[in-house]
Design brief:
Largest sheet: 8 strands, mixed
CATH class: Alpha Beta
CATH topology: Glutaredoxin
Strand content: 15-25%
Strand order of the largest sheet: 1-8-7-4-5-6-2-3
Structural class: alpha+beta
CATH superfamily: Glutaredoxin
Distance between the termini: 56 Å
């Protein structure tokens, strides 16, 4: 009986792993969408507030994540590699976590350093308003924003940010929708 359950578990894991390799968790919109109207959502380590519109002029990859999400943590170092590969372009990588995940900005900074992501720009969504307004209730969840400040797509779940194929894919999306 135990062997039967083990085989079912292996089959389930195989099917689940196959699904993550497909593009069905990427959604590029036919038309760009307006971002939420409220201006101040995000807070940096100094306490200064920002809105996503603060990044206009850059192609923004905004990753909503949580320190309690294992796939999110595994993705951090890959995001640093992606950022390094795209540093000479106007692609801006920002990571956004719930403020409730952290006691202080210093704690968040130490955490990111521990997972080889100390160079990423990080913000907190203090009350969860931005996540709620965007309809984001799981992590990781990536919002792609063109340089005009319009949302052009999303990536649900993790991505292989350190792979050259994904870098090229993002360049293609940027060229087509920026």
């Amino acid at each position: 009986m135990l062997k039967k359950y083990f085989l079912i578990l292996i089959a389930f894991l195989f099917v689940g792993a196959w699904g993550w390799g497909r593009d069905d968790h990427v959604n590029i919109f036919d038309e760009p969408r307006e971002l939420p109207e409220r201006k101040m959502f995000l807070y940096e380590e100094t306490g200064k507030s920002f809105g996503l519109d603060s990044f206009k002029g850059n192609f923004v990859i905004a990753i909503f994540w949580s320190r309690y999400c294992a796939p999110c943590i595994q993705e951090l170092s890959k995001l640093s590699v992606f950022q390094e590969k795209t540093k000479d372009t106007n692609i801006k990588v920002v990571i956004i976590s719930p403020a409730s995940d952290w006691v202080s900005a210093a704690e968040q900074k130490r955490f990111l350093k521990q997972f080889q992501a100390g160079d990423l720009e990080y913000y907190v969504d203090k009350k969860g308003d931005l996540s709620a307004d965007l309809g984001i209730f799981t992590s990781p969840n990536t919002v792609l924003i063109n340089s005009k400040g319009k949302e052009i797509g999303r990536i649900r779940g993790t991505a292989e940010w350190d792979k050259d194929e994904l870098v090229e894919y993002i360049y293609n999306i940027k060229a087509k929708h920026d």
